[in-house]
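thread: overnight batch results

M.L. [08:02]
morning all. the overnight job finished for the chain we discussed friday. pasting input first so we're all looking at the same thing
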Amino acid sequence: MKKIISNSSLIAGVNTNGGYIDSLKLGDKPIFFPKLMVKIGDELKVRGGMHVCAPNFGVSTIDENLPAHGFCRDREWKIEESSESSIKLSLEGEGEYEDTLFTLFYELTNKSLFASIKIENQSQSDKIIAPAFHPYFYTDHEDFVIDDVQINKEDLPNSIYNKSESQEFSSNDNHIVVKGITNVNEFVFWTDYKGEYICVEPTYNSTAFSDQNKQAYKLGPGSDFELKIEIKVLD
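M.L. [08:03]
and the structure it wrote out:
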């Protein structure tokens, strides 16, 4: 199911399939590269929009049954609440994450998109998590500038990591800040140059599910964890 949320500045297309934001625009100007299928080698892969990575970001060696970026982006979410400018979605966990509840909340306020993922451990055992958001920002690559990080654009397909709670950048006449409000401590920059997009990804310890030098979060029984961000289009 698809639903449009909007305010006087922004319009976003939300999809219950994967809990995606399929598109985000400021008036007629695209902020996100729209979600679509891109041919990469002999495969068609989803690119664009913004999805949540949960319970893990990247490849998992902790639980090899988990797909890259978790299962949440591949499942059908349930709409719990919605208004003209906001929507709340929920998803029951599975496998090792049975008795775990995932809740997404998206809200448009002025020129900002607020997004949060809340994870509630309703089981009697610990759950290991390291969630993130994975937005694809529209760019022609030539005009993309990260304000406080020196990057070699040839490094982007292998990902560039930056310990930070917020990140400001410019792209195609858009000046944007991605601010971590709760539990964001590292950003990942990535593109495969298969389309006009670049990912500026706010994470909790990024590749903690595969990198022993980074620590995933241990969510105890009866506890919850929230990762919350703001994506703001600056004047």
